[in-house]
């Protein structure tokens, strides 16, 4: 393996006369061990196409481009985009795009086999994830650094406080695992929160059968909208079902209506949705 080092970020930023933009979630990775952890998890091969979101100063971009067949690296900040294009101007297998990920059309990528590897801008990590889920068949692996709290919510199991509609939306399509926790000091400037590396591996098929996933996710969201209430009362409060419809669906699915949403597995939500719709 080639040796990579994270740069002296404060020095580099001074050289570039660059003022960090907090509003763009700019916290650059400065801990080498973490870089190697990401690379060892990503297992990039020359057959891989990689989508990197928020390339920053190119700390991840360089090793990814050394190992992959093609890297598409997006960066919204114009100064960082200019820096990256100058730094990597002779790389044939690297496309750097001055682009907002939330406006990026995933159809520009191959239909299959694209690995997403990124240290995400945290202010939009959930919208980015939702955007990726819309095109999930393209992405066999999503390996992302996110806020620790978000990673734990996504990978949470039923019966835990962190389990919620985000866990179900992501786990419906992928197997989610927190690879490791990363202390805030691994970044410059040091953010206010700790981070974690999250690995999402595409499932061949969803773990449950639902006729209309969008409607299913709306039901799950309504069930979690008031976490302190019972699942029946949350669904009643959402206004789409009558008390009679709900009582019949709970009775038929064998799920106790006094349970709280966080105790229901994805299979139980699917069962309930089959009787409700
Ligand atoms: N990859 C670099 C690293 O690991 O050091 C930078 C990571 S930093 C947490 C997030 C990067 O995403 C920043 O460079 C920021 O400018 C960029 N960014 C912020 N919003 C973005 C958006 N909507 N689309 C693309 N890039 C964005």
Topology (SSEs and partners):
Layout: H1 9-15, E1 28-29, H2 32-42, E2 49-53, H3 61-67, E3 70-75, H4 78-87, E4 94-98, E5 114-119, H5 125-134, E6 141-147, H6 148-154, H7 165-173, E7 174-182, E8 187-188, E9 195-202, H8 213-224, H9 231-238, H10 243-253, H11 266-276
Parallel strand pairs: 2-3, 2-5, 3-4, 5-6
Antiparallel strand pairs: 1-8, 6-9, 7-9
Helix pairs in contact: 8-9, 10-11
The structure holds S-adenosylmethionine.
How can the largest sheet be summarized?
Answer: 7 strands, mixed
Proportion in β-strands: 15-25%
Tell the overall outline.
elongated
**Protein structure class:** alpha/beta
Whole-number mean pLDDT: 96
**So, CATH architecture of the largest domain?**
3-Layer(aba) Sandwich
The fold-level CATH name of the largest domain is: Rossmann fold
The count of DSSP E runs of length 2 or more, i.e. the number of strands, is 9
